[in-house]
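Letters spell out the chain; backbone shape is given numerically. Both lines appear below:
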Amino acid sequence: MATVLVTGGAGFVGANLADHLARAGHRLLVVDDLRRPGSERNAAWLAREHGNRLDIEVAALDDQRVLDTALADCDAVIHLAAQVAVTSSLRDPVEDFEVNGRGTLRLLESVRVLAPAVPFLYASTNKVYGPLPGVTGPVGEEQALDPHTPYGCSKATADLYVREYHRSFGLRSVVFRQSCVYGPRQHGGEDQGWVAHFVHEAIAARPLTIFGDGGQVRDLLEVSDLVRLYELAIVHIDRCAGRVLNVGGGPANARSLLQVISAIRQLTGLEVTHNLAPRRPADQRSFVADVSLARGLLGWEPTIGVEEGLGRLIEWAYTLSRPRSPIAG
């Protein structure tokens, strides 16, 4: 069984990934500064569930001592820690770059020096492609990068460095350009994690705010499908090292924002209301990932449909506020 270092391991994806790998028998080293709302709660949950298989270090990416100690004892690195909100990057672009750009480069350099043979998996984003005007079909990895906003630029910078450390130094690195991941343990907000944000607001009987007309389309990917891909990439790193993989729910799970609201309404029986606000800068009108490369290299594809995935998220969200969900059996 492997020892896996997960940066940002108390975040939404990180907590689900750490839980999945611990249940599979692996040992987890989680490094997280617990800055993101909900991360403290996720860390406490992980400690309760897997205290004997999991160590949590409360630290940021600039804590070299913590990273070096963790790298000396790991068999794989999954780099999830990031500044994740476009809105935050517009307020403080320097901090955004320090975390996403410089933080990733610092970690890559430490891996190059201390653990150059371990798999290195990086969570990038579809925002590196920019607004994609006129694009409506599935987006493949050959799509040119055109990042808008400081967030898009900082993530694209890290994305490029992760690939270049494979070419220049032989690191066994892989980039996942992820699209609209959602599921339990996601404490979403207007700036990031919109599917969970919609669910939490609906349960709290607060009106939603949609930036634009609600016709924006995303391919929703339930988090348990994503963590399967991370595990597959570690096991089969020789198949995918040096590659970039677009990772999303694919065409079958493409929904507009208004369709997601309608599904939440149907699953909960709640009256979900919304208001419209001006479209946000650089928002993609449509993004649907072409996942054929991940399918060909690793035999992976999404298995959880939108309605099933939303049901899982709703069930979990109700545990935060009420004893029982209206869709429970």
Notes: The two ends are 36 Å apart (CA to CA). The CA atoms of residues 48 and 54 lie 10 Å apart. The first strand starts at residue 3 and ends at 7.
